[in-house]
Amino acid sequence: MEAPKRFSTYFFMGPAPTEALTADGGEIHELAWMRPADAMRRRNEGEIELIPPTFITLALLASFATTTDALAHYRDNSPEYFVTKFTRADGYNIALYDGDAGYASSDASVPGSRNRLLMGEGDWVYERDV
């Protein structure tokens, strides 16, 4: 099943600003700087909320040793686009993405490559081997 309502979200990368940032009280009510892995952990511990596109972006960023490495990678590669197909299996809501063996059929049990977000009651886990 494809997501009933689609929305587009874009993520941009650049060096962190040197000046202090403040919440504007409009769209931004609070802000915090943290490493991607820390944000994912805090989401899994229920301290913050994240939507799936943000969680996946953080998982991808967490795979880089340094900010410089991440900036170089994304500068030199085309952006990825994720069109989600949702399913449910083994107590998880599962978001399937292009490249996952189960993507075409929306069947998470299809063996093969993985590009999916497992969303359980607590932990979310991004699986990717494509």
From TrEMBL:
Its cofactor is Mg(2+); Mn(2+). GO terms for molecular function: hydrolase activity, acting on acid anhydrides, in phosphorus-containing anhydrides; metal ion binding. Keywords: Hydrolase, Magnesium, Manganese, Metal-binding. The keyword Cytoplasm does not apply. InterPro entries: NUDT19 (IPR039121). PANTHER family: ACYL-COENZYME A DIPHOSPHATASE NUDT19, TESTOSTERONE-REGULATED PROTEIN RP2. This is Unannotated protein.
